[in-house]
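ESCALATION

Customer reports they have been waiting on this structure for their group meeting. Please prioritize. Original submission:
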Amino acid sequence: MDFKFLQNLLSLAEVFSEKYPSSSDMNLFAQWLGEQAAQAAPRAMAMPEMSPTESVESVIFKYLIYLNRYARGYLKKALGKTELTSVDEFVFLVNLLNRGSATKMELIERARLDKPMGMEVWRRLYALGFVTQEDHETDKRSKKISLSPAGRAAVFGSLEAMNQVVQLVTGNLNESEKHQLLELLKKLEDFHLPIHQSARSSSWDEILDRSSIN
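Update from on-call: job pushed to the front of the queue and completed.
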């Protein structure tokens, strides 16, 4: 008898008991086990059709662009019920809520925006009274940005809409697929962030050299 198998089976039985504390139905347990196995097992997925001019990399890029557009479209409609007008405004406010005060450039970097777009977001939030600014304690060239009471209310007033959007964007992925996608996206984030951070002072050729893709 494989005792490791029995230990795994007992562990699964404990999870099942937590989910269905009053059930001793073996048929239900067998069905639940099948669902767990289906979620954990890697599935062969059909590759999308590609034209002769497309590559795997170009199709990945295309789908990332599409997903960004879908998400922004959903966000525009969802935030229409709130005082915010863009996801970038929400990202700025959440950063201040989670981390306290920051400079304008720190907020722009955290949102992965370029400076002109980031400054436009800041100006809209300041005009709405969602953020305040005061002199920085150590850097006289910078202002310290903080969340105002109105900004805090705007964040919490937008949370339900944002949660609905993130659920919609992840679509029909099961839990296992979500974790796989998250790992891949984190790997790409770790690759691109240092390139992004140095891009302002780099030429295109320098960016390509630094990326080591040539």
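Sent to customer with the following note: The longest helix spans residues 175-198.
Escalation resolved.
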